[in-house]
Amino acid sequence: MSFTVFIQILIGGLLQGGIYALAAFGLSISFGVLNVLNVAHGEFLMLGAITSYGLFKFLGFHPLLTVLGVFPLFLLVGFLFERLLLRPIRANSPHEFLIASILVTLGASLMIEDVTFFLLEQSFISIPFSLPSLKLGGVVLPSIRLIILGAIVCLTLLVHLYLRRSFTGKAIRAMTQDKEGAMVVGVPVPRVAMITFGIGTALAAAAGAFYVILFAVTPSIGIPLTVRYLSIVILGGLGSLVGSLIGGILLGLTEALTNFYLGSHWAPASAFFLLVLILVLRPQGLFGYK
């Protein structure tokens, strides 16, 4: 394998991993604060991709700027989802609420997929967009992938700064580490829970806005993607935000290398092999605690 090919595979793996990490970051933060295992998380990526396509096709948005419309819209969707579907089933027992949330989000996932199949006029969508490649010496770099990777890094840093510097962000981190302690010191739990789920939903949709530029999107991709994101969250450590980011990038690189050497049909298997290997060697995940 030449150095040029290796660099291209590396960039492809980092980009795929960046999209995985962005969406998994949203799933991890929702689980860490709300104790919600959101089975519909992949559907929000799919809906974000379709919304991005609609903004591009019907409203004339630049493909790389559709995320500016998708993120706030799905922030609101996440607020409503938590307020109308999750808050009413919150029980005294965290275990009961976890089971109930799985059932509710699974039902929402199946409903979203069926409705999207019914309303979508074509079997798949993608945004036809490309930019001239960059040439550095003998290495050809796909500029569109580099731009999207940079946008993902910037969005992740903005969310990180929000969690570090704002009062609500500090409350979210406090609830991730110690829910009962956060409640004792007066953290407004219902408000923080709603904002947290909104951010998680918006991150998944933003990942979809980038995803649709690079890959074809179908209504059926939601649940398979959710399984990947759950694998990433477990790989990085339940409730660990840094772990979900590192896990996503690691998974993307693993799939890219496996796809090149063994073929595309082995890529999903390699991802789950990596997950099993990590769980055998370190059951709490890369950044989790025992």
Structure explained in plain terms:
This protein is mostly helical and 290 residues long. It has one domain: Orthogonal Bundle (ABC transporter involved in vitamin B12 uptake, BtuC), CATH 1.10.3470. Helices cover 74% and strands 2% of the residues. The chain is built from eleven helices and two strands, in the order ααααββααααααα. A two-stranded antiparallel ribbon has the order 1-2. Helix 2 runs parallel beside helix 4, helix 2 crosses helix 9 and helix 9 runs parallel beside helix 11. The radius of gyration is 19 Å and the shape is globular.
Strand and helix order: HHHHEEHHHHHHH
| Assigned CATH architecture | Orthogonal Bundle
- The percent range for strand residues is under 5%
- Helical amount: over 70%
Molecular shape: globular
Number of helices: 11
The end-to-end distance, rounded to whole angstroms, is 41 Å
How many beta-strand segments? 2
Tally of domains:
1
Query: From the structure provided, what is the oligomeric state, counting identical versus distinct chains?
Result: single chain
Rounded mean pLDDT is 87
Question: Which regions are unreliable across 5 or more consecutive residues at pLDDT < 50?
Answer: none
User: What's the story with the biggest beta sheet?
Assistant: 2 strands, antiparallel
CATH topology: ABC transporter involved in vitamin B12 uptake, BtuC
CATH level-1 class? Mainly Alpha
**Rounded to an integer, what's the Rg over CA atoms?**
19 Å
Strand order of the largest sheet: 1-2
Task: Kindly name the structural category.
Answer: mainly alpha
